[in-house]
Amino acid sequence: MTIMVPVGVSARHIHLSLAHIDILFGAGYQLTSFRDLSQPGQYAANEMVSIVGPKGRFDKVRILGPARGATQIEISRTDAFALGINPPVRESGHIEGTPGLKVIGPQGEVELEQGVIVAARHIHFHTKDAEQWGIADKQMLRVKVNGERPLIFENVIARVSEQYALDMHIDTDEGNAAGVKTGDQAEILD
Amino acid sequence: MTIMVPVGVSARHIHLSLAHIDILFGAGYQLTSFRDLSQPGQYAANEMVSIVGPKGRFDKVRILGPARGATQIEISRTDAFALGINPPVRESGHIEGTPGLKVIGPQGEVELEQGVIVAARHIHFHTKDAEQWGIADKQMLRVKVNGERPLIFENVIARVSEQYALDMHIDTDEGNAAGVKTGDQAEILD
């Protein structure tokens, strides 16, 4: 059985808490949707911010909505060198002990104490897909990506939920190293 | 038999022709060595230039010496997006039909018509190493990199010469995707 999954290459982005949206965009501000993402209910917002580190900054960093309990910034290792920080590779939501950055919006700025990660590559499975293929939540998978620069990613984390749609998430370093872009297909080897 | 090779992660850099060194640094200028590289006779120069594309620029781009017959710029895919150009993945020296960039030195500037590539990952073997391990020039290898983000690179080109020292060359996207740095070890699988 060959199991193919679509690839989504994530550029640097930020998830904001409601409190930080208030500071950056004004009290009570509501993010607006630029386009829907692969995961149900998730969207790329029209709104963007700047992120500033000790050695560099990026402007026009896309906000992903809706608001979350804690602000989290996901960047590539390449971005991290340019910014001058050293975030760990982590699963989304695990931000304890990570570095921060300054975030600048049109109405204010926030000095984050933590929240910057390099996202660990993972595949979202709907529960039915996972059951059909015998894949368990948190299982580590090997995935072949047949782009211009073929490679096999090991330690790809399976994340299973009824809230998820099938999609493999890698960052721009990983996408570029494989020569793939969003919408390409990858094959789960085992 | 386990075959291990050292990894070298190449940041963006430029090789210059003598004619371009004359324009960028002044007639008859001689590059000076900052440090030796893994390949015999090759060095990172103290001298640096700026490279400028339609969408962005990088300053302090390291020159690798000695001078070559044709100027060549090696960047990552991430760099290419930032500069606003779309160079192909190529072996060093194969620059026909590639895009150019503007190069700025302290004494002048050059508008390259071609010469920018994303370097195809490869391993330099001394002839004796290749013979011992049964590896032929141009052979495609699979190489496992056990960094923080383990992966297997396919289509790694073997380059065999008596002028070479054992070293695997990948770019920063590939190094970051694997979580490895220069001096780490990789394993040739087949």
Describe the protein:
Chains A, B: InterPro entries: PTAC. The structure is a homodimer of 190-residue chains. Chain A has 190 residues and is an alpha/beta fold. Chain A folds into two domains: 3-7 and 121-188, Barwin-like endoglucanases (Beta Barrel), CATH 2.40.40; 11-118, no CATH class. Helices cover 15% and strands 45% of the residues of chain A. Chain A has helices at 18-25, 77-83, 127-133, 172-178, and strands at 3-10, 13-17, 33-36, 43-52, 57-68, 72-74, 89-90, 102-104, 109-111, 116-119, 122-126, 140-145, 151-161, 167-171, 185-188. In chain A, the strands form two sheets. In chain A, strands 2, 3, 4, 5, 6, 7, 8, 9 and 10 form a nine-stranded mixed sheet that branches. The first copy, chain A, has a six-stranded mixed β-barrel with strand order 1-14-11-13-12-15. In chain A, strand 4 (43-52) and strand 5 (57-68) form a beta hairpin. At the A-B interface, strand 13 and helix 4 of A face strand 13 and helix 4 of B.
Q: List the uncertain runs of chain A.
A: none
Mean of residue pLDDT of chain A? Answer: 97
Q: Whole-number radius of gyration of chain A?
A: 17 Å
Count every beta strand of chain A, where a strand is a DSSP E run of 2 or more residues.
15
Function (chains A, B): Involved in 1,2-propanediol (1,2-PD) degradation by catalyzing the conversion of propanoyl-CoA to propanoyl-phosphate.
Enzyme class (chains A, B): transferase
Family (chains A, B): Belongs to the PduL family.
Pfam family, one (chains A, B): PTAC
